[in-house]
Amino acid sequence: MIKNKDITKKFLYIIMAVMVLGKLALASLQFITAYPATVAPIDDYLMVTLAKNITEGNWLGVYNAMTLSKHSFFAVWLAFLHIMHIPFTVGNALLWTAASWFFCHSIKPVINKNYVYLLIFTGLLFNPASTAQFTTRIYRDSIFPALCLILFSAITAIGIRYKKSIKSWIPYLIIWGLSLGAVYLTREDGIWVAPFIAVAVIVIIIVLFKQKQKAVAKIISLVIVPIALFGIVLSGYGYMNYTHYGRFIISDFSQGEFKDAYGAMMSIKQDNPVDSVAVNMEVINQLYEEVPTFALLKDVLQSDEIKNGYYDKTLGEYKGGSFYWAIRMSAQKLGYYDSPQKAKQFYEDIYNEIVLAVKEGRLKVDGKIKSTVSPKINLKYVPQTFEEAFNSAKCVWGFEQTTSECLPSIGTTDEISEIEKFVYQKGNVAYVANTDRLYFSPIRKLANSFMKFLTVVYKIVIPFMTISAICWQIKQLIDDLRKKQFSLNSMLNVIMLGYILMAVFRIFMISYVEVASFTIGTYVMYLSTVHPLVIAYSLVGFINNFNQDI
Asked: How far apart are CA 102 and CA 108, in angstroms?
């Protein structure tokens, strides 16, 4: 088992196999959190519905206001798990295991010891956020961090192997393009990975020229292959939408006439803007007066049914992004979603009428009319964003909100059972007698206690390792400048800098959206892509700082 102050490769694989089995066992002991249509119609249950349609050969199903509202790769993944009869959390654990292994493989050329490989793999595999409460929901954020880590690892693998032949790059280029497509199709903000990709490509190109590593051919493959595969993935998804709905698009929120119409509404000048409100009642009332097609929605938008679901009665406004859901559901009630073409024409009419009203001076806009569903960039949110970023960083490095215990499934027995059967896993509706605490069997209690213990370990170890990693980066940079050389460790240093900067970028990105739109408080689900970046950065930097075997 031990040879030359290292564990043998055979022993490494045995330990890894045991750990993976342990990870899958823990995942199998988790309950899901089942939310039916009455609880999460635009989130969890929407994804279940889309996945069911896929398994039945109907793509995303009958066209309505929800069908093309979101990027829905998760529904494809969920359908795959159903077809393969893999329980939901077990399938997600397998994906996370693959992502953890792939990161270790990506930096293998700079790992000279098997025990180092094992340490990094273990640290990523048991990331507490990968089994956190939100991952028990049948929702896309349960796989988004794993997909992002696979993408980052593919780019890392090429960076570390910049001296290798183009032939050796091909698997990583393919995974890069395919995983980028999956990331983008999972969430509307999947484009957040773009800065890492752009900087990584620039760095690799510079290094190739400096090192005279057949730069031209490698650069062509570096640019063409991932972009081509990314385009193929998106085109395939868009083609499926085209064949079923006559719309060659990914979603209404990322492109098309709805995005144009909603962006035009947000562009209208507000004399009395309200914090965290994209389109306030002042503007909505102007739209009723000046935009005839929009005015058709007035009675439905003012109905109790819509207001009870999307209107903040205390504030007297449609808060955050609630307004665009209110518009879509109102339009559906009036029959504008009877066909994709009818919905398209409806939003085109709203957009054109707003443009005309602006041209004639009946409506005023701040700057140019925009096409977006994202909150406006407003400097007044900057102080609050920094405050929220601090809370988010504390949440990440403190591994807060990472309990593995599910939330109670809500709904009738039939509603919950429908979801359970589709994902091959049970929800929890049992409570401890005379309490409001969910009941867990002894074996599940033991599993949850073990994961709580792991969380405590991460809370203690990772912040210390992060500080150590920062010290390593500074030391490595000084050493490179002194020796005037660029080694594999130098490339690793640059890549790890990219990891931690992307972690900070994601924190500030989510913090701004939280302050300007969500206003639900710091929520680990939206920060979960940060955890693997922080863990990978901290482990690699710590080992480099105290052990020269990596």
From this structure: 10
